[in-house]
Amino acid sequence: MAEFLASIFGTEKDRVNCPFYFKTGACTHGERCSRQHNRPTYSQTVLLNHMYRSPVNLSLTPEMQRLGGLTEEALQKHFDEFFEDIYVELVDKYGPIEELNICENLGDHLVGNIYVMFKREEDAQKAVDGLNNRWYNGQPIYAELSPVTDFREACCRQHETSECTRGGYCNFLHVKAASREMRHSLGVDTYGKGRHVAGGGGGRRRDRSPRRRRR
Predict the structure, then answer these.
(1) Collapsing DSSP states into helix, strand and coil, what is residue 123?
(2) Nearest Cα to 146, choosing from 92, 194, 109?
(3) Torsional sign, CA 47, 52, 56, 58
(4) Number of helices and strands (H, E) in the chain?
(5) Rounded to an integer, what distance in angstroms lies between the CA atom of residue 44 and that of residue 193?
(6) How far apart are CA 187 and CA 212, in angstroms?
(7) How are strands ordered across the β-sheet holding 97-102?
(8) Structural contact between residues 186 and 100, judged by C-beta atoms closer than 8 angstroms
(9) Nearest Cα to Cα of residue 28 among 39, 19, 20
(10) Helix, coil or strand: residue 144
């Protein structure tokens, strides 16, 4: 019996534990979910809840639509600057990372979520302890350890091939890609591409201070 329960843990057959929370660290039902959300006491992965505030959300307002919205170039530039800012800060203050995935989902439980997989569990805990006392761009940071360990399971495969029919309201992660130039300048060519890449790779540490909007 124990072997059977272990084999279905975190799957749709598991009637006790929430499979979406297990796979993505987030659930559309939140605390109202009928299944358990088992929060890890240790993990390599940190979730920064709703931290990335995309200009896309602003561009959906009637006023921005009337003005023609934002160009793809402007959106990518905004994202690249954010990606660089977060990467440099995390590596400089808390330690090497293996993955940095920033969601472009629109659903309330995933919008703006950032998933950071550190090389060491102790660095992930250090980041949670430090970031929960900080602010970014005028907003408090909410950090927690995440159960996500395999981004191949967490990410939407259809999105990676531009075939997802649910768009931004998909319950799997739609990871936004940093530009090739930004990834190359940071030395993180093994991740940040908007899809899971086997082998991770912590990248090259960049020796300079972060520059924007912190206290």
Answers:
(1) helix
(2) 109
(3) positive
(4) 9, 6
(5) 20
(6) 21
(7) 97-102, 114-118, 45-48, 143-145
(8) no
(9) 20
(10) strand
Structure tokens at 25: 């660290």
**Position 33, amino acid:** C
How do residues 5-48 score in pLDDT, each as one tens digit?
A: 344 444 555 657 888 898 999 999 988 998 889 899 999 999 99
Residue-wise pLDDT for 37-85, tens only, equals 989 999 999 999 999 998 876 655 555 555 456 788 888 999 999 999 9
- The answer for residues whose C-beta is within 8 angstroms of residue 179's C-beta and 6 or more apart is 76, 80
DSSP 8-state symbol, 200: -
Residue 31 DSSP class: G
The answer to whether residues 150 and 71 touch, using CB atoms and an 8 Å cutoff, is no
Contact (Cβ atoms closer than 8 angstroms) between residue 95 and residue 123: yes
How far apart are alpha carbons 182 and 86 in whole angstroms? Answer: 13
Say how far apart CA 92 and CA 96 lie, in whole Å.
Answer: 8
